[in-house]
Amino acid sequence: MGARRRSRNTASARLLRPRPPDLVDPARVAATRTYSLPLSVGPVQQSLWTRWSVRRSSERRPFVKPTPFEYDDPKSLDEALSLLAEYGEDAKVLAGGQSLVPLLNFRLARPERLIDINRITELDYLRFENGSLRIGALTRQSTLERSVEVAHRVRLLAQAVSFVGHPQIRNRGTVGGSVAHADPAAELPVAFAALGARFHARSTAGVRSFTADELFKTHLTTALRPDELLVEIEVPVPVFGTRSAFVEFARRHGDFALGGAAVVAQIGPTGTCTQIAIALLSAGSVPLRRVEVEQWLVGRRLDTATRVEAAERCVADIHPSGDTHGGSEFRRGLVQEMVKRALLEAATTIGP
């Protein structure tokens, strides 16, 4: 028994012993070396990473630190706007850092200057006034999640933010950062689109306001100028009795969704839909409002047949990008199913 044990250990040691350098094929090592991102990143970052990883495959090891940059931490909004006016496209704004920091570490973003706005307390607020919910851009997502008043008066936001990453991410991630990053797989931009929110940006030249259609241009791209800073999101408070639903499908909770839908609806005393908004998640390059379908639904009951047809209409002209988790047709069918589920939840759940 002892001899066999020694023999087995000797064989294991041989297997673990590194190969002599002259037997190692560098080309084979380079070809088989792969670098991967966690599943929680969005499809846009995955695409960027894939291209970067191919370029790096012949090098010894990947970058894990950002390129050198200058750092500013302004204490006031005016100071931050002055810095943006001075440095423009050479600068990046750091808020929660949940999207920017990974891009910096993988050198997918290479700003010459980083403007850290975390000390600008005037951008951190959550208040109801004049029929609107006003959210400062620096408000943490966890603050939104824990607000009892938000859960009662703007239920869709409370539903959507619960799907964002994990508690640690929501503790650092900001509401404005999620909007400005403009990832079509992010939950908050889709919820804001369904709620008809307006986005307010400031620069040294003044203030500009945008609807969701005006702000979101394509993947990770907004209408904000390099010298502008998103400062506030203004959300109309739904009337009492408004129903809402936020539904998504992800491989794991906290991952970016493969498809989803947000619905805000008002049902009249006769049971017919009097007003409705539908926005799609991970269905294109921006959050998609389905205005024509919304108009078609007004005056109809949200019964099974209507929900099925509405879902078909919602995805009739969309072509989601496919990836390793599913092709375009799979994602299209997934979004269709999410719309049906969101409409069912909105039809059967009484709002606050």
Describe the structure.
- There is one protein chain.
- This protein has 352 residues and is of the alpha+beta class.
- Among the domains are: 121-236, Uridine Diphospho-n-acetylenolpyruvylglucosamine Reductase, domain 3; 243-348, Enolase-like, domain 1 (2-Layer Sandwich).
- The chain contains 15 helices and 14 strands.
- The strands form 4 sheets. Strands 4-5-10-6-7 form a 5-stranded antiparallel beta sheet. The protein has a 4-stranded antiparallel beta sheet with strand order 11-12-13-14, sandwiched between helices. Strands 1-3-2 form a 3-stranded parallel beta sheet, with helices on one face.
- A hairpin with a 2-residue loop joins β8 (216-218) and β9.
Question: Topology of this protein?
Answer:
Blueprint: H1 2-16, H2 26-32, H3 43-56, E1 70-72, H4 77-87, E2 91-94, H5 100-105, E3 113-116, E4 126-129, E5 132-136, H6 141-146, H7 148-153, H8 155-161, H9 167-172, H10 175-181, H11 187-195, E6 198-203, E7 206-211, H12 212-215, E8 216-218, E9 221-222, E10 229-236, E11 243-249, E12 259-267, E13 273-281, E14 288-289, H13 291-297, H14 304-315, H15 328-348
Parallel strand pairs: 1-3, 2-3
Antiparallel strand pairs: 4-5, 5-10, 6-7, 6-10, 8-9, 11-12, 12-13, 13-14
Helix pairs in contact: 8-11, 14-15
